[in-house]
Amino acid sequence: xxxxxxxxxxxxxxxxxxxxxxxxxxxxxxxxxxxxxxxxxxxxxxxxxxxxxxxxxxxxxxxxxxxxxxxxxxxxxxxxxxxxxxxxxxxxxxxxxxxxxxxxxxxxxxxxxxxxxxxxxxxxxxxxxxxxxxxxxxxxxxxxxxxxxxxxxxxxxxxxxxxxxxxxxxxxxxxxxxxxxxxxxxxxxxxxxxxxxxxxxxxxxxxxxxxxxxxxxxxxxxxxxxxxxxxxxxxxxxxxxxxxxxxxxxxxxxxxxxxxxxxxxxxxxxxxxxxxxxxxxxxxxxxxxxxxxxxxxxxxxxxxxxxxxxxxxxxxxxxxxxxxxxxxxxxxxxxxxxxxxxxxxxxxxxxxxxxxxxxxxxxxxxxxxxxxxxxxxxxxxxxxxx
Length: 386
Description:
The protein is an alpha+beta fold. Helix content is 52%, strand content 15%.
């Protein structure tokens, strides 16, 4: 059933239920471990199986394949609730859902869907998605990872970097070049399972923030896979990727909203408790106005994100709306986290309080799945079209 055909009251109930259950889960299972996971750069792999049991790892997967069969509004709600507690977990969950899993939902054969989606939706398997390379970030058309066809098989050579869930992921959707550099129809997508000969995880990035979300290099050396693992037609990889990224940008918009909301709520609570000159600091105009600006920015980003999610659920064109939401929400996350540190003063610069981590985590939102500069390029092209 199309999400737009579901009664609005039912959708609101779904979102409220997800907000409550995911929020409770995050406070119970994630919050006590935030600092330990962050400092150790530990990816809590077993946590995603628990999220699968909760139904979160297959929110966008149709029920016929073991998923929840819900839409982007419900999905955005879940990401926000995870990210307001720990953005790292929201990021890993988003990469699994909207990139890897959703790519298979959108372009997989029936056999591929039956094989992979139930395991991904349950959280038994964790998914990754590989497009970025060391020398081709935004310039993905010149990727150097090449797949060469040999009869019924393909041989893949090259590398990818900055891949979320790259080491712990059980299955990766990989975009490779199968044509000439720069050719819009010169790339093809494949599904590759962990343990495939010639496919290994390289070094793990030591990052500023989002440290509990695993980011690694993927290496391919004469990696041989069957043509059955190809996603869609040869040459359609870029076209598929752009459609997948439309949804992925809604994910990062939600990640930004959750990060900003977590920082704002921490600053709000602290401002009511912290006393200076005989009264709570929230009663000083300098702090009160900061909180007003933070709240306004978070509300605007939330509305933009849910608007993009609604368009996605209706099957309407979403490129402009997703880029606007992603751009505004990611910049809001940085701005609000920065102000939250300021509200905390010296304590905001220590790891004993949560805003230090929100400050570090927020910057990734302006970079991942298309930088803010790329979003402005997309937005300007869309609004300047005749």
